[in-house]
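Students often ask what a holo structure prediction actually looks like on paper. The answer is less mysterious than it sounds. You provide the chain, you provide the ligand, and the output is a string of discrete structure tokens encoding the 3D arrangement of the protein together with heme C.
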Amino acid sequence: MNRMFGAVIAVSALGVAAGATATAGPVEDRQELMKSVGKSIKLSVQMVKGEIPYDAAAAAAAMQTINGVPGRFEKLFPAGSDLHPKTAAARKIWEDMKGFLAKSADMKAASAKAKIAAGQGQAAFKAAIFGSVLKTCKACHDAYRIKRN
Ligand code: HEC
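The corresponding structure tokens follow.
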């Protein structure tokens, strides 16, 4: 009886361990979201520079992807996650959460406008990307992201 009980405990402990490795934590999740933002921007810049043909639907979809990030991203900064060995998030996020959230809202607003601009053609989209969306990346990164080599 005792042995059986022990075996059940051992198996469930394994289950927990397997679950823990399969599920990414908030740091990995927020980095994944930022990677999707990075990919969307890369595609957009390639299109406005004429490196690949301009595609209004793809441009709008890229802005939609970015627009969906802030609501999820903002929830992935639990206290203490600045201490994660792989994070580039600066301590300032936790010291000034209000300012950080404002930068996040700026990106959301800029991407919504750029999505509309995407339907107005390459020139309008280019103006939205260089004139506003990319500025919101830099504004947040400069203040709230640690520079790493
Ligand atoms: C509200 C703040 C904020 C905005 C706006 C923002 N970022 Fe970030 N970004 C961060 C933070 C914080 C990190 C570091 C996350 C971590 O390592 O925990 C990051 C990391 C990244 C990374 C690295 C992801 C990785 O591989 O770990 C990329 C790429 C990136 N951002 C691209 C962008 C682009 C492009 C934009 C603009 C369209 C943008 N970001 C806008 C805060 C922001």
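The pocket of heme C is lined by residues 27, 30-31, 34-35, 37-38, 41, 66, 87-89, 100, 103-104, 107, 133, 136-137, 140-141, 144-145 (CB under 6 Å).
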